[in-house]
Amino acid sequence: MDQNLRPRRLRGGNTIRKMVRETRMDKSSLIYPMFVMDGMNIKEEISSMPGQYRYSVDRMSAQLELLQQAGVSSVMLFGIPDEKDEVGSQAYARNGIVQRALREGRRLFPDMYFITDVCMCEYTSHGHCGILHGNDVDNDETLKYLSEIALSHVEAGADMVAPSDMMDGRVLAIRHKLDKNGHKDTPIMSYAVKYASAFYGPFRDAADSAPSFGDRKSYQMDFHNSREGIKEALLDVGEGADIIMVKPALSYMDMINKVKEQVNVPVAAYSVSGEYAMVKAAAKNGWIDEERIMCEMAVSTYRAGAQIYLTYYARELAKCMDDGIIG
Ligand code: PBG
Q: Is position 7 within any domain?
């Protein structure tokens, strides 16, 4: 056989396979999403997300400690308040759940990087991501609240804010508000390319944030669209977003890749609750190998173009990187 092109030559052993890997990852690009809730002495497992918990502020440090030991130094905080109202006032309260978690986290873990999700759905009685007028979310009225929430997070110690509401103009509104109050160096990671997705189901159980009527399709994107995602990404970069996120990750690899080609800011991808829940459920049944699937999902997200990966598997992935299984 006259065959001089043999791709298998570079697959012959572990050393050569690792040498030619095209995708390299680092633990510093992992962000762990974490739920904090009002109350005391709470560590409650989320039923649709085995292995993930809701923590009260006094119990969260054990988890932060484990993350730090594993080399995961960034977390994204989601708050679950005791009280909800029409305007989600606990979201910007000085003593709100996220604000208290930030002050405590800052004090105990000065080297951790704290990012906060800026949204209203966990805090509003109706479960929508903004202020309602009739049955509609009022975009411009909501911007005032979102910027107030972002400022309250930064004042409590957030290193970065991440608006996930999908209102038009929120990045600019937040940027102005932070700048005016002396926080011009605090970055904004925008959930810019965020689809109306059934993959958020388990999160809504976890955060008790499902809308009480209707759905989020009037603000989150229609998953039939990709060029619209580029529009969203470019708008947010224009408004001052420092990092652009694509969400979910698994079914949206095309978007991660396209956004990476179109914008020159770092691209993050969020492997959401439903992705995690599917892997856990299938693994529990013995139908898939959890670790290998988790690794494959992570690597393919980076291969598609993500530089930053938000995942409930952050700690486990960090270990796989340490062990040289991936990365
Ligand atoms: C808040 C928000 C959601 C998620 C992140 N921020 C829920 C939603 O938009 O309904 C989902 C994260 C996940 O599913 O893991 N708006």
A: no
Domain assignment of residue 17, yes or no = no
Tell me the pTM. Answer: 0.97
Whether ligand 1 lies within 6 angstroms of the CB of 273 is answered as yes
Domain count, the chain: 1
Q: Is residue 12 part of a domain?
A: no
Find the CATH number of the domain harbouring 55: 3.20.20.70
> CA-to-CA distance for 173 and 161, rounded, in angstroms?
13
Say which residues have a Cβ less than 8 Å from residue 160's Cβ, sequence separation at least 6. Answer: 113, 114, 115, 116, 186, 187, 188, 189
Q: Is the CB of 99 under 6 A from ligand 1?
A: no
- Residue 16 forms part of a structural domain: no
Mutating to test ligand 1, I would choose from 31, 36, 164 the residue with most ligand atoms within 8 A of its C-beta, which is 164
- Find the catalytic residue in 247, 258, 260, 280: 247
Range of the structural domain that residue 237 is part of: 23-322
With a threshold of 0.95, tell me whether the complex ipTM lies above it: yes
pLDDT in tens, 74-103: 999 999 999 999 999 999 999 999 999 999
Does the beta carbon of 116 sit less than 6 angstroms from any atom of ligand 1?
no
Alpha carbons 162 and 275: distance in angstroms, whole number:
20
